[in-house]
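Below is the data:
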Amino acid sequence: MAASGTGGSRADNGYGSQQPRRRKGPGALATAYLVIYNVVMTAGWLVIAVGLVRAYLAKGSYHSLYYSIEKPLKFFQTGALLEILHCAFGIVPSSVVLTAFQVMSRVFLTWAVTHSVKEVQTEDSVLLFVVAWTITEIIRYSFYTFSLLNHLPYLIKWARYTLFIVLYPMGVSGELLTIYAALPFVRQSGLYSISLPNKYNFSFDYYTFLILVMISYIPIFPQLYFHMLHQRRKVLSHTEEHKKSE
């Protein structure tokens, strides 16, 4: 359930990028909406970044910084659910299933793990994925905004296709460590678990489900990471060739 979208392609787990398919772009109204959406999301993640820095400077410590940005993090990460609708309505050329998977995995970690298991909110691993998400999303939403306006600075393009090399492993490590830290509390409390007997004759063990989520990172992470490295070589080399031709 390794994750992470936008008004553009999200086949990158939020840390890298997949080249969007060549097709006719959105109409003027849809473009205006997507620009506004991406500007708002960029601003939102900037608020989170500033909140982290201010809290760190005030406390003089990086421990428990989650509480300083908890509300905007929940709001703007949940706001990414709109990206599934963008795909469903066809205003962006991305897979609905893939985008839903990537968006929901982050929403899951935000609400079903970090929010629901209060004990993990002080873990340093939470800060690890929050910082990775924040830097990633500021770059990603800026990338889409400038792309929609047809004025994409090379620096943002370079950052979009380069910083994932560090940010993706950093974010995934934080996600896995946070889920791992939640396991004993989930097991002890029986959180979200359903035991037999019940009238529906159905059982569900949230503890086991979280372990399966962690295991799912093993096949998914290498595939996405190497795919993004391939995309980086293709996109940036194409940019360099274009510059030389000019």
Remarks:
- The two ends are 43 Å apart (CA to CA).
- The longest helix spans residues 206-245.
- The CA atoms of residues 137 and 237 lie 24 Å apart.
- Helices lie at 28-59, 66-79, 82-88, 96-115, 124-148, 154-160, 164-189, 206-245.
